[in-house]
Design brief:
349 residues; eight-stranded mixed β-sheet
Length: 349
């Protein structure tokens, strides 16, 4: 069985890589003018009273890498991030080989200093927001001791990367949790916590969603036993001309608490699924059973679940963190990045 996040890369081969440079290659992602993110949408896209200045992100595996990319690139509108089983920003540097090695097996460990330098370089070119906006934010990081997909030292590198911009006191790092494999941890839903198995949500006796959101937002109301809001669908094609060309599914999903649909001002949290974990492969497992909706229901938080899907260059439906959509995959102008950012604007009144 091919496991969740990285073995898929071997199927892509070096020929699908937009850059054939190695781990130490100088990034050649072209700088571009700051993009404009039009609201977009159509009649089926709801309009909600969202405070986009309090947006936060989370993700696991390839979705964790995507969450880091999105958080760093759009840091001026972010509140914080929760990352499960992933490494630092632009870890792959556009190289499949680096993604498979340094950024998954951790051999060698990711070069954090070079990734911090790349971040600053991109910011100076206007390709991402100034990382000084990260300083006031709160970060949650989670890694399992028994994760065979993303080595613990890769997750350590993510901690060290964020610590280059954010005070350590604002970072909660659950490192090497015993009995935990490559999985999104929940109290009671999913497969055994110590195995890698679809839908990659684990019964870990640990509320990963609650730990993540409370780290980002501080004290929250207790989660709902049964969420009273609604799951809605959002056409991703309203925000990008050719979703399939960017390995994006036709629909995204969102959990909207009743209070938010009634007009209350709410925060937005964006959750990125991992490889083999999109709705086209596991149904509603991630967007219904991650635990995020229960916390969102009682705390005025809309949860947006964008969706990637399988494609020839992306056979396991992963988010692009190595460059299959183009050399600007980790920048504001990246196909998937700009689509999700436009969806943010499109959902807000």
């Amino acid at each position: 069985m091919r496991i969740l996040a990285f073995v898929f890369l071997a199927a892509c081969g070096g020929g699908e890589n937009p850059s054939d440079g190695g781990a130490d290659a100088t990034p050649d992602h072209p700088a571009s003018d700051a993009p404009s993110f039009d609201a977009g949408g159509d009649a089926s896209t709801p309009k909600l009273a969202l405070d986009l200045s309090s947006t936060s992100v989370s993700g696991i595996s390839s979705g964790g890498y995507m969450a880091v990319q999105f958080h760093v690139a759009f840091s001026s509108t972010m509140k914080g991030a929760a990352i499960f089983a992933a490494g630092p920003y632009d870890c792959s540097k556009g190289s499949v080989q680096t993604a498979l090695g340094s950024c998954s097996s951790g051999s060698p460990s990711p070069d954090v200093a070079s990734l911090v330098a790349i971040t600053n370089q991109y910011a100076q070119a206007g390709a991402i927001d100034d990382p000084s906006a990260l300083a006031s934010q709160r970060i949650f990081i989670f890694g399992g001791a028994d994760d065979p997909v993303v080595a613990p030292n890769v997750v350590d590198a993510l901690h060290d990367y964020y610590a280059s911009f954010i005070a350590p006191a604002s970072i909660d790092y659950v490192s090497r949790r015993a009995g935990t494999s490559h999985t999104w941890p929940t109290l009671a839903y999913g497969t055994p916590c110590d195995v890698v198995s679809s839908p990659y949500i684990g019964v870990c006796n640990y509320d990963g969603a609650g730990a993540a959101l409370q780290q980002i937002f501080g004290t929250l109301a207790a989660p709902a036993a049964t969420p009273s809001g609604s799951i809605i669908t959002i056409p991703q094609g309203a925000f990008i001309a050719d979703p399939g060309g960017a390995s994006l599914d036709d629909l995204a999903y969102a959990y909207v608490p009743a209070s938010c649909s009634s007009g209350d001002t709410c925060k937005l949290h964006i959750a990125f699924h991992g490889c083999l974990q999109g709705a086209s492969l596991v149904g509603d497992a991630f967007y219904t059973h991650s635990g995020l909706n229960e916390w969102a229901d009682t705390n005025h938080i809309v949860v947006l679940y964008p969706q990637a899907k399988k494609a020839t260059v992306n056979p396991e439906g992963c988010w692009d963190w190595w460059g299959y959509t183009g050399a600007d995959f980790a920048k504001k102008t990246g196909a998937q990045m700009s689509m999700v950012r436009a969806m943010m604007s499109g959902l807000a009144k």
